[in-house]
Write a structure and sequence with these properties.
The complex is a heterodimer.
Chain A: E1 4-5, E2 10-14, E3 19-25, E4 32-38, E5 45-51, E6 56-59, E7 62-67, E8 72-77, E9 86-93, E10 103-104, E11 108-113
Parallel strand pairs in A: 2-11
Antiparallel strand pairs in A: 1-3, 3-8, 4-5, 4-9, 6-7, 7-8, 9-10, 9-11
Chain B: E1 5-7, E2 10-13, E3 19-24, E4 31-37, E5 43-50, E6 53-56, E7 65-69, E8 75-79, E9 88-95, E10 103-104, E11 108-112
Parallel strand pairs in B: 2-11
Antiparallel strand pairs in B: 1-3, 3-8, 4-5, 4-9, 5-6, 7-8, 9-10, 9-11
The chains are: A mainly beta, B mainly beta.
């Protein structure tokens, strides 16, 4: 049973415009959320995170928004660049658990075209 | 700083054979994780070491999988005997205690034929 869902397997955006990647979760115990970016033949790379006590976290071109009541988060990339083309994974963790495991979604393939 | 290193990068084995994957975490990282991604699906947790101790192995699919972490340094994941459904990319990740933004290795792509 998937606890983190990314319902869009792919997204195509023109360079310079905004990319919005979405993620939903079902476990109300999750209190920390992360986004990872993955290029082919490489491991996922940590991009940005947000604690459940916040509703927004920004780092340069990347902003993550969290809507706890809807159990939904999104990653905004603006402006999008061709180098942003990759698979983006949403992940969640219950920090109250000592186990520390991350629960991942299936990923969204972002393609940014010139 | 060297990253997380995994060997081999690819492995093709026949059903019933044994394969051992190795992971060298970032020096000083006490947390070491193994995850697996079957094509097109989510990255799924397998197990978690803190130093040399297994903290959580609830994600291990069955007893054909055996993980060890020698002296709290490198880790191995052995699959014996391998089955077709074991095919996928096996990722290792490490982090300091208390940090969730792990550093992942490039993965080992295992194909069982």
């Amino acid at each position: 049973d998937q606890q983190v869902k990314q319902n869009s397997p792919s997204l195509s955006v023109q360079e310079g415009r905004i990319s919005i990647l979405n993620c939903d979760y079902t476990n109300s115990m999750f209190d920390y959320f992360l986004w990872y970016k993955k290029y082919p033949a490489e491991g996922p790379t940590f991009l940005i995170s947000i604690s459940s006590i916040k509703d927004k976290n920004e780092d340069g071109r990347f902003t993550v928004f969290l809507n706890k009541s809807a159990k939904h988060l999104s990653l905004h990339i603006v402006p999008s660049q061709p180098g942003d083309s990759a698979v983006y994974f949403c992940a969640a963790v219950d920090r109250g658990s000592t186990l520390g495991r991350l629960y991942f979604g299936r990923g969204t393939q972002l393609t940014v075209w010139p | 700083e060297a990253g997380v290193t995994q060997f081999p990068s690819h492995s093709v084995i026949e059903k019933g054979q044994t394969v051992t994957l190795r992971c060298d975490p970032i020096s000083g990282h006490d947390n070491l994780y193994w995850y697996r991604r079957v094509m097109g699906k989510e990255i799924k947790f397998l197990l978690h070491f803190v130093k040399e101790s297994k903290q959580d192995e609830s994600g291990m699919p069955n007893n054909r999988f055996l993980a060890e972490r020698t002296g709290g340094t490198y880790s191995t994941l052995k699959v014996q005997p391998a089955e077709l459904e074991d095919s996928g990319v096996y990722f290792c990740a490490s982090s300091p205690l208390g940090l969730y933004g792990y550093t992942f290795g490039s993965g080992t792509r295992l194909t069982v034929v």
